[in-house]
Amino acid sequence: MTGAGERGGAEVPPLDDHRPGATTRRLVAYRAALAEEIARAGRSVADVHLIAVTKYHSAALAAELVAAGQLDLGENTLQGLRGKLAEPGLEAVRWHFLGRLQRNKATAVARVATCIHSIDRPELVDHLDRVELDRPVDAFVQVSLDGDPTRGGVAVAGLEPLAERVAASRHLRLRGIMAVAPVGADADAAFARVRELAEVVRGVDPAATAISAGMSSDWRAAVRHGATHLRIGTAITGVPETHR
Ligand SMILES: *Cc1c(COP(=O)(O)O)cnc(C)c1O
């Protein structure tokens, strides 16, 4: 997507601009566009949390976001997390893990992440219950809207039992539901469905009201349909230099 917040004459840097300051300007423009969309939806900015996804980007880019006040950052691999954890300037980051989680990496991820958005099977929860963690970890149960197993997420039929398993876990704190709109799907229809399915999770724990939905290409629809946690990469960070 382009021009997340082109208004008032302020130029938003193109997505291939990685000069110092470009990401900050995209972030500021994105936040402005987001605030407008939230207002248009009749919602409150306090109810919508922005996670800037830094995957495939450098620690320096992440540090630029932190300096601009963006402390919630997302990565989708353990390797990506580890590459940034030790970097100066990133100590205060709240890391969100968004990717498919392999069992043998789950403990390492849980030790460093504030929140895992991709809990998609009970075995992961069983595994984490057997290890020692010194603090609770926020968790979203990821639902698959199209049943495509390569993209992660539990089938709709498995959503309620999985949410119950997370709610009963030792270390995970059930926050809500997460979903990715299927490729080529109508985003409004997809996120309307997510909002319905959020009620299944809320039925398990009345406090688990959060909805993690919306990426660079479909976040406006997600805001319209009640998303509380947006996971925005490209619109803020630009296109990764390795992916151009
Ligand atoms: C990469 C990723 C995002 C961000 O994607 P963009 O299209 O770059 O905004 C969000 N959620 C998940 C699960 C991701 O893997």
UniProtKB/TrEMBL annotation:
The keyword Oxidoreductase does not apply. Residues 1-21 are annotated as: Disordered. Its cofactor is pyridoxal 5'-phosphate. Gene3D superfamilies: Alanine racemase. The modification N6-(pyridoxal phosphate)lysine is found at residue 55. One of its GO terms (molecular function) is pyridoxal phosphate binding. InterPro entries: Ala_racemase_N (IPR001608), PLP-binding_barrel (IPR029066), PyrdxlP_homeostasis (IPR011078). Residues 32-239 form the Alanine racemase N-terminal domain. HAMAP family: PLP_homeostasis. Pyridoxal 5'-phosphate (PLP)-binding protein, which is involved in PLP homeostasis. This is Pyridoxal phosphate homeostasis protein. It comes from Pseudoclavibacter caeni.
